[in-house]
Design brief:
Length: 240
């Protein structure tokens, strides 16, 4: 049996592929920004909950922090132990039953933010816990406020240590965005499926999409590592 491949039939639909790539990058960018930000906040809250209570003010809020820590832990375990597609379907198909109807694009971004924040919370927390107590004490001796200590003393070296893991997690979420086409978000896999429905070249369409995902993963990893190491963490030296 002779099999003739026709990739040109796929490349002729380059506007659809370009649209898919644009949506994939857009979803990844938004979820990366908001997901990592939420993850950092949750990691900070969990770290504060286990810090010793040395002053009266912290003793008063320790109960609140303890409750918040348990809620965040529940959230993290729930998201990390359920499939992303189930989370996406719950947001898009389940929330309307409660009166909250979201567009496919908004539901996709929300699901990706929720997913990334849960994973990044634990990654960032590992970096924060690796910060030597002496650094915090040095910040306190300079009269810095707790927020200033966290922002300028604790967070930058913590993110520096776990940055490769965060980059990998962002790429995983980007690849996971492929299922967002199931709710008609016009990302890359949606475009590939639409192309094969028009020309019946399923093999060529999805091979092309897979190759584009590979290129996107390589490009995003290179870009984030370059930006992270040379811009965000400029001046820091790894001691690994």
């Amino acid at each position: 049996m002779n099999i003739a491949f026709d990739f040109w039939a796929v490349f002729e639909q380059w506007p659809l592929l370009l649209t898919g790539v644009a949506w994939t990058l857009g979803l990844t960018s938004l979820s990366g920004i908001f997901g990592l930000s939420l993850g950092v906040v949750m990691a900070w809250a969990r770290l504060e909950a286990v810090r010793p209570n040395h002053d009266l003010h912290r003793k008063k809020i320790s109960r609140v922090l303890d409750i918040l820590d348990k809620l965040i832990l529940f959230y993290v375990e729930l998201i990390r132990n359920t499939p992303f597609i189930v989370q996406l379907f719950f947001i898009f198909f389940g929330l309307p039953a409660l009166g909250l109807r979201l567009s496919a694009e908004v539901a996709s971004v929300l699901a990706m933010v929720i997913n990334l924040s849960a994973y990044s919370c634990e990654i960032v927390r590992a970096g924060l816990e690796a910060t030597p107590p002496a650094q915090v004490q040095a910040g306190e001796s300079l009269g810095l406020k707790p927020v200033q200590i966290f922002k300028h003393v604790v967070l930058p070296p913590a993110l520096f240590k776990v940055w490769p893991a965060l980059v990998s997690q962002i790429i995983i979420v980007m690849l996971g965005s492929a299922v967002c086409g199931q709710i008609s978000t016009e990302e890359l896999s949606y475009s590939a499926n639409l192309i094969q429905s028009r020309n019946f070249r399923a093999f060529e369409s999805f091979i092309t999409a897979a190759f584009i995902y590979l290129l996107l993963s390589i490009a995003i990893r290179w870009l984030l590592n370059k930006v992270g190491r040379q811009v965000i963490f400029k001046g820091m030296v790894s001691h690994d």
